[in-house]
């Protein structure tokens, strides 16, 4: 039987070690356990649970936020056991049933397992490819980047960035059929500006493209929020921004990942030219709540 227990300080370092093995697939999950490169307990609104076997070996970590967001990471052994020992999933199934979930996101196989356990009607499902960065193509972009007006944004830039943020949220974040909550979108932008590294391309005093980190873990960072204003597309700005950010973290000794919709062929080609390659599949499932 696999137990499902709340995370305690006693298990914290072991959990971080477990996540570090697959960190490229769960940077956001790791990020709430790291502060200034050191292990830390997560904020109360982001409670974690640890899956252990009879020998107290960790086989999974799951976070369920107060808003109903689920992040996860499971061992290969646990995923295999889920097919042959369904009774071992009972504690995890009971945990999920005690929440009203809004979204499950993470590596494809783990997301599908949780979706099957939760047994509620899904609102929509989005499939992604998770890509990882190798600093092999940066020299191709060096000259263009040296002349491109890229700047890191601060909270003072929130108004200038907001038209990009809300369109990104409308297209990439909110479930199909939802109306954008502009207040929530602006609050999220301010949070990102405070806690992450957000960059923009400026042309004619206009913030015409943006990208940045949306999670920073132990050894990996995750790039997200990539969006170009419709009036400034087909100029390679998004590709250059992503290349710039990925290279800067590479120089700091960090690995870089991002995920892109499986049907977005143009974005995949752009990221591949910037040095990213396929790592695994990633799935996000939304629920009615």
Tell me what you see in this structure.
The structure is a single chain. The protein has helices at 9-21, 27-31, 76-84, 90-97, 108-118, 142-147, 158-173, 182-195, 237-251, 265-273; strands spanning 3-6, 34-35, 38-39, 48-52, 58-64, 69-74, 103-107, 122-133, 150-152, 198-203, 206-216, 220-228, 255-261, 276-287. The chain is built from ten helices and 14 strands. The protein is an alpha+beta fold and 289 residues long. The model has no long low-confidence stretch (mean pLDDT 95). The strands form two sheets. It has a twelve-stranded mixed beta sheet, with helices on both faces. Strands 2-3 form a two-stranded antiparallel ribbon. The longest helix has 16 residues, at 158-173. A hairpin with a 3-residue loop joins strand 11 (206-216) and strand 12. Helix 9 (237-251) crosses helix 10 (265-273). It folds into two domains: 3-120, Aminopeptidase; 131-280, Aminopeptidase (3-Layer(aba) Sandwich).
Order of strands, main sheet, comes to: 1-4-5-6-7-14-8-13-12-11-10-9
* Biggest sheet overview: 12 strands, mixed
Radius of gyration: 19 Å
Going by helix content, strand content and strand pairing, the class is: alpha+beta
Shape: globular
